[in-house]
Amino acid sequence: MGTGARAKPLRDVVAPGLDVLFCGINPSLLSAERGHHFARPGNRFWPALHLAGLTPRRLAPEEDGELPRYGLGVTNLADRPTRTAAELTPEELRDGLRSLTALVAEYRPRVLAVLGVTAWRLATGRPRAGWGRQEESLAGAQTWVLPNPSGLNAHHQLPDLARLYAGVRP
Fold it and tell me: Which residues are annotated as catalytic?
């Protein structure tokens, strides 16, 4: 799975023609250590997917490889694992956007759902980008910006995440 000449610290979970490719900001230190996306215990990604009706049950981070069975995938904007996303530089995010564009062009998901508006703004150079469906697509994929499911993001509660995530399935 995945693409690129160099090994990523956390592999992409992708397949051709997914309904939705979720894109986190970057791996947490724990996710990189465990080799699975959204592995921190307080992260709400897995419960949000299930409550949104995107998976038939709540998957565990160790089951991230099962996502394509449900028309879903997951990747990250930046590859470098950090304690917090704020440690990333704008250059890393812009470089990540180039890699993400290539990944989307190769695998052609119908929807790209980026999980974090601040990272998206920095990566794209669009300081006014907002939540929801974006006017521009990325490599042909309808692009959405949704709240990050990190437990550090107290602005959105689990029911909000589930409602917003459910809205991206084509």
Answer: 26, 37
